Amino acid sequence: MVCNTGVSMTPSLDGETYRFEWRGLYDGVSILWDEETGSIWHHVTGEALSGPMTGRSMSVFNLLQMTVERALAAYPDLAVAISDREIRGGGRARSVDGDPELSDRLRATIAAEDTRRPTMEIGLGLWDERTRRYYPVSRIRGAGGAVIDRLGGRTVAIYLEPVTGVPFAFYTRATAATWNGDLLELNDGTVLRDGLLYDAGGDRGEIERPLQLFTRWYGWALMYPDTEIWAR
Amino acid sequence: MHATRDQAAVRWAVALALAGSMATGLSAQVVAPFDADRAFIADETIFEPFRVTDEDTRPLREALRQGVLAPDSWLLIMEHEAGRLATVMDQLAYHHVAQGEIRGVPWMVSF
Questions:
Q1: Contact B110 A30 (CB under 8 A)
Q2: CB within 8 Å: A40 and B72
Q3: Measured on CA atoms in the order A169, A170, A171, A176, is the torsion positive or negative?
Q4: By CA distance, what is A56's nearest residue in B?
Q5: Using CA atoms, how far apart are residues B77 and B89, in angstroms rounded to an integer?
Q6: pLDDT tens by residue, A172-228
Q7: DSSP secondary structure letters along B17-67
Q8: How far apart are CA A179 and CA A145, in angstroms?
Q9: B95: which of A216, B11, B41, B50 fits an S-S bond (Cβ 3.0–4.6 Å)?
């Protein structure tokens, strides 16, 4: 989709698994339909918007965007599911590149845009049970490509992956982060290299990520109209 | 002292489960009432969903060696309670939905 937005979910509730498919557009993003009940679901929040399941929500998890090269560096044993559909070029969604516009068909599904940021701006949205906050990629870049912030009582590092420019976030105990070549050096002694976190002794640590969405502004703001916008 | 691989996997699964439950609670609070008049809802889908079976899944390294994917091919990597799995961004830009099970745990990717 032009919104460049995706998540993973658990497509089951009360022990029953539902089968989903794309069925339309709402607020400029896709909506899904399940075969079992015919309900309409938001494709990011996982909430049933219409039909017998209205108000029910599926659990949502992160969906990270990486190239094959970066993914293998971070997860050498990763498996991939490949359909029989032709893979075009390098496989990058056209939505990320260039300067796409919101089509009339998409605009017709939007009540009112939030004009605090440019419609098609790319950023990283973070959220927890209390806070929704949007980090424009341009502002992360302006801060040197890495930001330390607080989210839900915890410290979080937000950074632009140096090769692809894709933003990611993870929880940390550091209070400062600086790029040194391809190394993200944090002042608690940890280092991020090739998407992997290493402690001060050079041993690999676990990365814990907050819920995050690499998205365009219009889609994020329509989902979470009370969103904060990060500024230095 | 470092956690074993199993301990780390359990911690990761717990963190993911908590993240998922947080998201469930949040979405109900902030999404405005659905306005059907603004929605475009098709009578049937025009994008076939990707129903993933074991036969569709292979090691990423193997897909690269076979030339099915290139080093600069873009992936969508789910960090799900069922486990970590990649799908191909260009394919999901068509399918919009990929769905399957890992060791009996259902998962779905929506893009």
A1: yes
A2: no
A3: negative
A4: B28
A5: 9
A6: 999 999 999 999 999 999 999 999 999 999 999 989 999 999 999 999 999 999 999
A7: HHHHHHHHHHHHHHPPPP-TTT-EE-SS-SS--EE--GGGEEEHHHHHHTT
A8: 7
A9: B50
